Amino acid sequence: MKITHVEAIELRLPEEEIADKASAGQNSLIVKIHTDEGLVGVGEIDSHARVAKAVVEGPFVHSVCTGLARVMIGLDPMDIRVIYEKLYQATFYYGRRGVVIHAMGGLDMALWDLKGKILNQPVYRLLGGAFQTKVRAYASDLWGCNGDETAVKASRWKAFGYTAIKFGWAPMGHSEKVDLDLVEGARRGAGLDMDILVDAGCCWDTVTAIRRAQQFEEYNVFWLEEPLQQDNLEGYLQLSGVSRIPIAAGEGDSGRFAWSDLIDRGGIHICQIDLARNGFTEAMRIADLAEDRGRKVVNHFYTSGINLAAGLHFLAARKSTFICEYCVEETPIRWDVTKQRMEIDSGGYVHVPEGPGLGIDLNEDTIDNLRVT
After folding, report:
1. Residue numbers in the chain where pLDDT is lower than 50
2. Residues 58-101 pLDDT 10s
3. Taking the model in full, what pTM does it have?
4. Is the C-alpha dihedral spanning 105, 303, 142, 217 positive or negative?
5. Are 282 and 258 within 8 A, CB to CB?
6. Among the listed residues 72, 69, 78, the one whose alpha carbon sits nearest the alpha carbon of residue 115
7. Rounded Cα distance, 206 and 177, in Å
8. What single-letter DSSP state applies at residue 207?
9. Which helix (H) or strand (E) holds 286?
10. C-alpha span between 32 and 77 (Å, rounded)
C-alpha cells in the first residue's frame, strides 16, 4: 500500500460568526491521507489553518526545506515513525517548533487512523492497549463576563450531567477583583460537589500567579491552568514549587523538545497534550517523559470531534490520565464535523470510540458547507 495524495481542507465559520475570543472552534484544518487501495486516514491540525495548509501543500525548496505532502507521496503509510522522521528532516530549516510540528501532528494522527483501518483495530490498541475505555469528562468553556454570568454557565453544565467544569481566558487577568469574582461565581454555580478548574489564559506575571494560587485555595480549585506566559519556564518552576493547587500547562507546546523544557525546567504537575498539535507518535513519547518524572498527562481539546476522538484514544493508553477535556462550545466545527458526537454518559464519562482507527466518520455535508475555497 502506498500514499497517493494528501489533502488539507480548511474549515471556517462564516465571517459574521467569527468572534474576538480565545476559541479554536471557529476554524480548523482537516487532513486526509489517500492510498492506492482506497483507504483514507483522517486527522486534524489545531493551528492557524491557512498557515498550516501552506506547510502541508508547499513546494520543494531544497532537501531540508519543503512542503510536507510531497514528502509522503509513494511511502508506505504503515511506516509511521519513518515518515515522521522524514517530515522532521525535510522541514529542518523552517520547522522544529510551532506550526510545522502542528501540521506534522495532524498528519501523524491521520496515519494512525489509517493504520487502524488497515488492521481493523482502534488506535488505542495499536498504542499498547487501554488502561481505561471511558474517561471522566470536564465541560470546557470560556468565562462569563463576570461572576454572576459564570455561575449561570456552571449551573447549566452541572444540569447536563458534568461533574467538573473549567472556565478560561478573558476577562481573567483584568484585576484582582475580577479574578476573584470569576472564581467565586464558578464555585457558586457549581456547588460544593462539582470540581472547578481555572484556566487563566497566560495572563499573570510570576508574583501575581503565586498570589492567585493562594487566594484560590478557599474555592477548592481542581487545577490552575496556564497562569503564566508559555515561555516563562523559570516562573513556572517557582510557582509549581509553592502552589498547593496543581499547575497544568502545555497546550501551546508542540514536539518533545519543547515539552522536555516545560517538564524539566518548568516543573508543572499536569501536562496538557493536544493531539492536533503533536500527533500520536510525539504525544506518546512526551507522555513517557512526563510519567517517568511523576507527572500526569491529560488531553487538550477545543476543536472538532476528530481531535476529541484522538484525545480519547491517547488517554485510554496512558496510565496516569484521570480526566478528559470536553469542549462544549456550540459551533458546527465542534459538533458537526464528525457523525459521532461522543456525548457524556449519565455519570459524566465519555467513552473511547471502538471502531477501526479513530472510530469516527466525517460528516461530508458539514465539510462542504464550511470549506474555504
Report:
1. none
2. 999 999 999 999 999 999 999 999 999 999 999 999 999 999 99
3. 0.97
4. negative
5. no
6. 78
7. 18
8. H
9. helix 275-292
10. 12
